[in-house]
Write a structure and sequence with these properties.
The complex is a heterodimer. By secondary structure, chain A is an alpha+beta fold. In chain A, 31% of the residues lie in helices and 13% in strands. Chain A has ten helices and eight strands. In chain A, helix 6 crosses helix 7. The chains are: A alpha+beta, B alpha+beta.
Chain lengths: 307, 179
């Protein structure tokens, strides 16, 4: 494996409505040839898991993995919420592709690095494990426990811990007290010596002005309050009222539908295709004969050169 | 034009009469909670209610349901209040991936509407056409039992078993009193 140290950085900013957004960005400087076609050509790459803290004190975990019933969306939100000392009842989740800033690389890049000089902003945070996050992100893979072990450990927990420290720093500054005396608990910041307290939302925008910590302090196992607990899955309510969006439910402008005529036996080779009759049917756009799989298809396990 | 009564609203759709109801529900009406699974009425993912009965919308031509009351998964909650079966599904944490669950729930609601106290055999009979590749059958059964109304026989047997548990100690007390 190539060197992937000094490639990750924690990023933060304030988005619409004064919400604090914290994520972990990836810069895949080492071009593994096989990975090269899968990442765009411009230096740094985005993005990992995000947390948003809104004006309503709702913490939103933006989850970049599929939920197949394995509980990834719930577990990742738990990892984020625990490090953030969030009130679990005020935690929501969002599937990453539904988020414009997230789905659109250019926008995301502008947001994350906006106003920052990249080399100065880039700081080493965590090492090679970011490779796993990067791979998982760009391939949009969910599997092999990568959600928890890569995105969760190095993305969600990092983002949650970083957000917590930024909120504490903002509160300490506003209250003019040492940051070490700030207590975070259930989405509330407090300063016991003076009795001051405020919900996270109150300092979300101010926290965005603080530089994200390079090495946020993660909790030790004995400090876990939400992680490791069995909680009702947060994806289930949408799955009992028909509102959960599955792949088949997505419609994009100009979308076409494809139907595959597979070989009737294993290992068959295509001899010829006569699509004339099909093309005469109303609405048929085209008949495609054995498309050459893209490099990404090959990466995903397709073996186009074998029968 | 075909008039459809879906979830209590009458709508007109302009489709070929042979179009499967499932396509009309999903594509013309945009109600995507009902799922396409097999297209040949073998999996139950597309289950909806037609005049209260569970039917497979993937093999039901839209012309066959004109005038009938059609209800989809989006139509069983009342005034934002989940149907008791939906709540039971949450309480028992039934879904895993969730893809088949609209159909599972619609079959369960149809069952409980006609038989509020289904026994094991009745649950099996009503639900065997709904396939769940995650294998959540045990949870489906528990969720249905959770909202089932106990029969008089079931209540009596519960009382009997409660009495049988306490009887020895009651007898013992009597012996002490009379002893």
């Amino acid at each position: 494996m190539g060197k992937w140290t000094r490639r990750g950085l924690i990023t933060a900013g304030v988005v619409a409505g004064g919400a604090l957004a914290v994520g972990v960005a990836i810069r895949p400087g080492h071009r593994v040839p096989r990975l090269a076609p899968l990442v765009t050509g411009e230096g740094e790459q985005l993005i990992n898991a995000w947390v948003k803290i809104g004006a309503d004190n709702i913490v939103t975990a933006i989850v970049p993995h599929s939920e197949m019933g394995q509980g990834a969306q719930t577990a990742l939100a738990q990892m984020l919420a625990d490090e953030l000392d969030a009130d679990w009842n005020l935690v929501r989740f969002l599937e990453a592709p539904a988020e414009d800033e997230y789905a659109n690389y250019a926008l995301g890049r502008g947001f994350i690095l906006g106003g920052q000089t990249f080399p100065a902003f880039l700081e080493p945070t965590v090492d090679g494990a970011f490779l796993q996050v990067s791979k998982a992100m760009h391939l949009q893979i969910t599997g092999g426990s990568a959600s928890i072990r890569a995105t969760g450990l190095h993305g969600m927990r990092m983002a949650g811990a970083a957000a917590r420290e930024m909120l504490a720093a903002a509160a300490a500054q506003a209250w003019n007290v040492p940051v070490g005396e700030i207590v975070t608990r259930n989405s509330v910041l407090s300063h016991p010596p003076t009795g001051k307290s405020a919900p996270y939302a109150e300092f979300a925008a101010a926290a965005g002005a603080h530089a994200p910590p390079v090495h946020p302090r993660l909790k030790t196992r004995d400090q876990f309050r939400i992680m490791g607990k069995s909680v009702p899955r947060i994806d289930i309510p949408a799955k009992v009222d028909g509102s959960a969006l599955f792949g088949i439910d997505v419609v994009v402008p100009g979308m076409k539908y494809a139907a595959i005529q597979a070989a009737p036996v294993l290992g068959a080779r295509l001899k010829s295709v006569d699509g004339a009759a099909a093309k005469l049917m109303p609405g048929v756009h085209s008949v495609v004969e054995r498309m050459t799989p893209s490099p990404s298809l090959r990466m995903a396990g397709g073996r186009p050169d074998r029968p | 034009m075909i008039d459809l009564n879906i979830n209590g609203r009458v709508m007109q759709v302009d489709v070929d009469p042979s179009t499967p109801l499932l396509w009309v529900i999903r594509e013309q009406l945009g109600l995507t909670g009902t799922k396409f699974g097999c297209g040949i009425a073998q999996c139950g993912a597309c289950t909806i209610h037609m005049n209260g009965a569970a039917v497979r919308s993937c093999v039901t031509p839209v012309s066959a349901v004109a005038g009938a009351a059609i209800v989809t998964i989006e139509g069983i909650a009342v005034d934002g209040q989940l149907h008791p079966v939906q709540q039971a599904w949450i309480d028992e944490q039934v879904p895993q991936c969730g893809y088949c669950q609209s159909g599972q729930i619609m079959s369960a609601v149809a069952l409980l509407t006609t038989n509020p106290s289904p026994d094991e055999a009745a649950i099996t009979e009503a639900m065997q056409g709904n396939i769940c590749r995650c294998g959540m059958y045990g949870r489906v059964r528990r969720a249905i039992q959770r909202v089932s109304v106990p029969t008089v026989e079931q209540l009596e047997s519960q009382v009997d078993s409660a009495v049988s548990i306490y009887e020895p100690s009651i007898m013992g007390l009597r012996e002490v009193q009379h002893g």
